[in-house]
Amino acid sequence: MKCSIKLEGVSVKLDGRLVLRDINLEINSSITAIIGPNGAGKTTLLRVIAGIVKPTSGYVNVCGMKASRASKLIAYVPAYLQVDPYATVEDVIKAYTYDIVNPIDPIEALEYIGYSSLAGRRFNTLSGGEHKLVLLAGALARRPRILLLDEPYSHLDLANQYKLSLILRREAEKGTIIVSTIHEPYYANIANNLVVMSSGLIVAYGAPSIVLSRELLEKIYGVEMIEVLVESNNLILPKLF
Amino acid sequence: MGFTSKILFPIIFLLILFILSLSIGSYKVYNPVELASILLGGDSIDKAIIHYRFWRTISALIVGLGLAISGLTIQRILNNPLADPYILGVSSGSALAYLIVLTLGYNNLLLWHVASFTGGLATYALVVSIATLYGLSSLSIIVAGVSITYLLTGITVIIISTLGPQVPFALGWLFGSVAFTPRDIIITSTLIVSFSLVIIAYYRGYLTSLLLGEEVSEAHGVNVRLLRLILSALVALIVSALVAVSGPVGFIGLAAPWLSRFIVGADFTRLLILSAIIGSCIGLGSDIVVRIIGGGVELPLTSITSIIGAPLLVYLSIKSRSVGRL
Predict the structure, then answer these.
(1) What are the structural domain ranges in chain B?
(2) Looking at the DSSP assignment, which residues form a beta bridge with residue B195?
(3) Which CATH class is domain B17-319?
(4) pLDDT digits (tens, 9 = 90+) for B57-82
(5) Interface confidence (ipTM) of the complex
(6) Is the Cβ pair B320, A85 closer than 8 Å?
(7) What topology is assigned to A5-238 in CATH?
């Protein structure tokens, strides 16, 4: 069965503030990146798809069912996670697969992302980047149809950012729908589709090569940007000096 | 080392404690050969002693087991490794309600349990509400719990002071004792704790997922609010049953899960099994120690469990702070 994620007229109010405003979105493609400034509603949009946050109005459909009923198809990786100080890496990965009939074994999941060396370590003794990788291993151990990632590139060094991009590409080729918030516009190029958000609204949507422009990023982030052509890739970066 | 090997030593230790508990007491100490011959048909006085010690052993064991599994459960649902039914005031709330009903002269086992359960649950709700007022952190819930525990213990002591000749006995009960628990209470409470253990085991999948926190668990299909509600009520039920057996006993709910974590990590199913065994060991071991060091006087159980638990709480607070959990 082909999966898709559909949001129709979704609005979310949290503590009296409208965080998402009338979102209409259909995600069929393999990798969708959500970008936008802090407070734009990126994480809330991801949480709505995950069924963590219920829309104040509107409708969310994940693979033909309500988001809350699609939990076995979903794997969610938060931006940050604090666990029991005595939890091992294997405990964390096993906790990810509690409801899955045929999950990937924790050690295999670590091997799959190229980090079998982390087996047996206490989760809280790992670096921020290693935390991200273990959570990704846990999420993949669920064999998800839909992988939801909140800021997966934060805390990762360059080598691991590269590795993560390869892993995401590999999963996408296997048919997994990946939706990820990102803060780094240059990683938007790994996505097939880009959702640009500002103040709870989707202000642009489409292929990154079409959607991403200096003017758009300057408008939503409110900083001056520059365009750099690197090996036929057009990178847009903040102008620092 | 596999899980089976890791639980083997605690199981053997529990069996040894069980035999010691039958053998040791202020009146008479039996060696294993004497114990075996009495069990196979000794004289009536010795049999009566062993019979008394058997029910006392069951009481201590069930108190340790029940507090351990309720401590573990409350720690997981609150995502707080410092939580414990005694520190959070659940035991004090149960004890106060139990004492009020008893003092009013109601001589009904069901009513005692209902009052004790309601008192424990209401106190737990009050502590969580107060802690939420200044951010539901690991530390705020402990501060709220300790404050309410002191308040309720103060009221309990005032009520006890009106009991006349029963004051020494009641004060002993207030700090935990399994020396004189009626058998019907032991049986009822054992059934309640066993039932609760089955329910907690039934929810082990959700509790495993909760290691990843509320957000990830909800995304993976756990109704966290409903689970917290059900299991909070279950913890209050266990504690109320145990208060009827022994009065409030401190720190087993903290110490047993912590020692288990140290041995097997944070997998909930493994923790549940090992905490139950270690909790039983602490309950039974503490009761044996109070019989030995009291010199004919029954010391309260909390006098022993506090010596283990209070330094542990300090250590855990420091350790938790070092990993940014407070």
Answers:
(1) 17-319
(2) none
(3) mainly alpha
(4) 999 999 999 999 999 999 999 888 88
(5) 0.92
(6) yes
(7) Rossmann fold (3.40.50)
